[in-house]
Amino acid sequence: MLDITQQPKEPLIAASILSADFGAMADDCRDVLGKGADLLHIDVMDGHFVPNLTMGADMIRGIRRHFPDVFLDVHLMVERPGDYVASFAQAGANLFAFHVEVCKPMRPDGVDAGELIEHIRGAGMSPGMVVNPPTTIEQFEQGIGPHLGDLDLALVMSVNPGRSGQKFIKDVLGKTRWLKERAGSGTRIEMDGGLNLETTPLAVAAGADTIVTASALFGSDDRAAVIASMKAAGA
Ligand code: DX5
Ligand code: ZN
């Protein structure tokens, strides 16, 4: 099992199954893992935080059954992440990443991030926090800053969440640089959205060490080359 608290020598590639073939999920996951993907990224959407509905504990459980040793990075685009801690841990998730936009102080009646982080750790998972493109760097600092030392991963969205296949938003790179200056070596800095062979070098240069890819990877007819090129962006 991958230890995400260890600084990787080259960027980790997180294959986002949102662009996999849902009718042949295990086969598609096996294919990208065999071609060098380091972990699987599972996008959970609740139809409220984002309009789309995707997958939940049953998908995590199914993937875990087929891949007992693969790190499962679960990205929750949901209004009430705390509702899913126990069921996702039980299903086999390794990392549970929730959005700063559903937490205090951005949402005064929202989630207490400190309590949720403790809840996630108590359930045996790694905690992660995620920030959307429109969230300002000040809001981001206020939301994530006090918790940075307790997180195993901070995720900077480089598209507005909801679906794969969108264009990379370069303006968010300032948040990645901010994280790179402040996060300790035990906290992975992940970027997600619009990452391909052109944009991955920008993300890595800004400090990202974990690259999520859906359409650029699953949509390619040479997936091994995509993964190798993305990893080479860190060389
Ligand atoms: C977007 C999801 C992403 C998405 C990335 O809401 O969080 O993980 O699958 O898709 P690409 O790599 O195609 O931008
Ligand atoms: Zn994602």
Task: Give a description of the structure.
The chain has 235 residues and is of the alpha/beta class. It has one domain (12-232): Aldolase class I (TIM Barrel, Alpha-Beta Barrel). It has helices at 25-34, 57-66, 85-91, 113-122, 137-144, 173-182, 200-206, 215-218, 223-232; strands at residues 12-16, 39-45, 72-77, 95-99, 126-131, 153-157, 188-192, 210-213. Strands 1-2-3-4-5-6-7-8 form an eight-stranded parallel beta barrel, surrounded by five helices. Helix 2 (57-66) runs parallel beside helix 3 (85-91). The longest helix has 10 residues, at 25-34. The protein binds D-xylitol-5-phosphate and zinc ion (ZN). Residues 16, 18-19, 41, 43, 75, 159, 161-162, 164-166, 192-195, 212-216 line the site of D-xylitol-5-phosphate (DX5).
Largest sheet, spatial ordering of strands: 1-2-3-4-5-6-7-8
Q: What is the assigned CATH homologous superfamily?
A: Aldolase class I
The CATH architecture is Alpha-Beta Barrel
Distance between the termini: 24 Å
Which structural class should the secondary elements be placed in? alpha/beta
Number of strands: 8
The level 1 CATH classification is Alpha Beta
Percent range for β-strand residues: 15-25%
Structurally, the number of domains stands at: 1
